Amino acid sequence: MLLCCATLCVRNAAAGGIDYAESHYVDSWLRHPVYGDPSFDSFKRAPGNPIHTGAPPFEWPVNGFFFPDPANGNWYLYIGAYAKGYAGPPPSRCLLYRSTDRGQTWENLGTVLQGAAEMFDKNGHTPDVSVVFADGRYHMIYDWSELDFSREGGLAYAWAEKPEGPWHRTAQPITRNTTLPPLLGKYRRTYAATLVRRKHDWMILAMMDTTPPFSWAMFAMTADKPEGPYSERTLVCNVDSDYFHPPLMEYYPAFVREGWVYAPATSLAANRNFQTIFRAPLEKATKADAWEIYRYGSVWHPENVPQEADGIWGQTFSGWLDTNDILQVMFPSRDTKGFGTINLASRPWAQPFCEHGFRFSGHQGASLTCLRKSFLEFTLNTELRVNGTARIFWNYQAPLGPNRPVAGAVLHPLSVTRHQAVEFSPAGWRIIEVDALGKTTTLASGIEQAGKVTVDRRANGATTLTLDGKLVWKGMMNVGRGAIGLLAEAKSCIAVEHFKVTGNSAPGVFSYLHTEAWLGAGENPAKWVEKKDPRFRFGIGAVRRDGDGRAKWNFPGRGFTLWSPKGPDYGMVEIRVDGAVVATVDLHANQAQSSQPVFSKTGLTSSFHAVVLQPKSGRLVVDSLDVSD
Predict the structure, then answer these.
(1) What integer pLDDT is reported at residue 607 of this predicted model?
(2) Quick one: what percent of the chain has pLDDT higher than 90?
(3) Which of 68, 224, 307, 466 suits 334 as a labelling partner, its CA being 20 to 30 A distant?
């Protein structure tokens, strides 16, 4: 009887349409560290934002640590103050704000930690800190670096009798980057640390990255005393493993709640709007297999206000839970003039999403999202507001991927091809078609703005556009089946109240480029040759310069098909799915052959997966991966 009722509910929903702006459909949307993230989060901003705005010579207050003092009840903001461009001069330092009335007002106490000539930093940088109160004393872990920002640095310890200081720095640091053996042959620079008190020891969770910046990793180490000595670093979250792990993620700081340690992380792509929260049992957090993704995307949305022009611009938010189980956070951004800002927000821990409606934005780059479904004909009724330039698209069949697998990545040019759309801008609207080469054809235009929008699309290509109840265009468009979604251009945002789709859908099939496989594996693109060749499926692919290398696609879905050309330089390739070897395929051929399906697998669960390619002989060639939902 229960099964029959559930089936009836699904049929009724399909007949009357589904409003994908309701938060229980949160995971029906495609989200990605580079492409973008439609966020249903329920964070509310504090009325006094911004608390602090950068000014010369410290234009970039980028990161920070939000500390509620359990001893005196005051709130403190430790802010990493950097010169524009990070490296200075002057060297970065830590500022301190104090509130004695739970964030209603704030007092700037000035510099609380800075470099010194007689210390190991040699008058260098001391920007980002974390603080713990224990055993009647305040304990701090902080970043340090010599004036030559990229040459020598690490983590260090200080203590104080009160949050305001004075802070007493130990004579030697905890880590010196130049003396550390690189983990996995590439991770050595230690920074962005959180100090955590456990039952029987102290733990540091901190970041390491590569140069140039194409991959990041979080590590853990422990000590009997907060000042150390600490154990060797242990990687706990990184793209180099065979499990699903979103790339470009930078952590700091973590927080603890009810026996769990939570590590929010922000994408370092150009659009700066994607967040993931990782977590592990506190007492097991030094083990990589104890960590899990607590929330993938839909964690954070930027507001359309001047002080949040670049989304979260820094590592991530700094949070803690108050006595009412409200998540109080400090977050960094950057205003329309390019100065860093420090702001506050909060939400109930038990209510991470609003009931309906989501925000979607582009910052330094464009953002793209779509439903993980495919439609031939449909009626879309949506209500939204657009600031800047944005598209509602359909019949989307473009391959997905970043333009390059490094910090500041944006959508690959091919990812904004092969679709039809209505575009809204300050000038009004236009109906467009974009072909496989990116050529845009405008079919119609008008001066009306977005509001209540209806797009009706028939199987034969007949399409109508209605704005606020008025039919403004009808005509014929190219026939095709594809995804329905949204594109927000750089410096643009969309606030969606409703997104109701009526029509029969099929599981979505999405194609991912070789750049996505680079990104997912944390590969250095300098070790590859990118080739424009019609033998690749989309006219572009990559070949490793040597016999080494690795490719990894992270995705949500139930099945996949690997596409690849064959040729005399290529050989045997091992395919692993979620760490298990599932096949070895032979890509060698005496004559070059065009790309073709070489391996498929179905029947995966709907959770997240990782497909890894590892060469066994010959040079590794990477083309594309089709993923079915």
Answers:
(1) 87
(2) 95
(3) 68
**Spans of all domains in the chain:** 15-39+362-507, 58-237+300-314+325-352, 510-628
Which residues are paired to 400 by β-bridges?
512
627 vs 601: CA distance, rounded Å: 10
- Cis bond before residue 50 (omega within 30° of 0): yes
Query: Which pair of structure tokens corresponds to residue 552?
Result: 């990894």
Residues 604 and 601: their CA atoms lie apart, in Å, by 8
What CATH class has 58-237+300-314+325-352?
A: mainly beta
Res 370 pLDDT > 90: yes
Range 15-39+362-507: architecture per CATH: Sandwich (2.60)
pTM score, whole prediction: 0.95
Contact 527, 615 (CB under 8 A): no
Span 539-579, pLDDT tens digits:
999 999 999 999 999 999 999 999 999 999 999 999 999 99
Q: Is the peptide bond before 525 cis (omega within 30 degrees of 0)?
A: no
- Strand 93-99 with 107-113, pairing: antiparallel
From the list 301, 311, 298, the residue with the least C-alpha distance to 28 is 298
User: Which residues lie below 8 Å from residue 271, measured CB to CB, with a gap of 6+?
Assistant: 34, 36, 311, 361, 362, 363, 364, 365, 366, 367, 410, 490
Q: What is the CA radius of gyration of the chain?
A: 25
Could you tell me the fold of the domain covering 510-628? Jelly Rolls (2.60.120)
**15-39+362-507 matches 510-628 in fold:** yes
**pLDDT, mean of residues 160-178:** 98
Average pLDDT, the chain: 95
Integer Cα distance of 164 and 98 in angstroms: 9
Total number of residues shown for the chain: 629
Read off the pLDDT of each residue in 242-249 and give the average, rounded to a whole number.
96
pLDDT at position 2, please?
28
Residue 272's pLDDT band (boundaries 50, 70, 90)? confident
Three-class secondary structure of residue 617 per DSSP: coil
* Contact between residue 598 and residue 563 where contact means Cβ atoms under 8 Å apart: yes
Beta-carbon contacts of residue 275 (< 8 Å; ≥ 6 apart):
37, 264, 265, 266, 267, 295, 297, 299, 300, 312, 316
